[in-house]
Amino acid sequence: MIDVWAAVPVKAFTGAKMRTGSVLSPAQREELAATMLEDVLTALAGASRLAGILVNTIDPVAAALAERYGARVVTEGALDGHTGAVNGLARVLTREGKGALLTVPGDIPRVTSAEIDAVVSSCGPPPSFAIVPAHDELGSNAVLCAPPFSVPLRFGDDSYFPHLIAARQAGVEPVIVRLRGIGLDMDHPADLRRFIAAQPRMPTRTLVLLERFEL
Q1: Beta-sheet strands, E only, within 49-139
Q2: Residue 77 has pLDDT above 90, yes or no
């Protein structure tokens, strides 16, 4: 069985989620980023099919949260944007001879442990590639690469279909896994409202926080 390691890139919480600035203050955005990360770490820590969790960050609050949930903190590529941080995590795992990387962002607070296990279960013999698209099929909200550099990754606002193309160009047929929790990331005010209205209601820390903000 391939050992799959969760890899979570986390930017500094200061200045986080700028695109929600029309409805949230800077302090609220920082609190939201930390709260969402804790919900994601809760799901990862509860998953039964992961070999471990790595968090790539230089933010001290994020690092403390990661350690609280048994994650290992690394900093390679942490200042190089989302793609650079993921590649840094892939380099760490490759040097250590790990089997696969499952990268997820820190802003998908409806993710569940069962969803994480479902993505891991989709992993075939290497080389293999699985992807969970964002709800709008623009972003790549979870990507599993076995081995970690089986497919070149490049994240951004419109990365999902380019990742499918990159996988096929690498000779790997992508496995597409659609999951509601992982698919709902939180970048815009509309995403916050969509999260609050999502059914079934889940008792996440993020939901409690957003209801307190009274959006």
Answers
A1: 52-56, 72-74, 100-103, 128-133
A2: yes
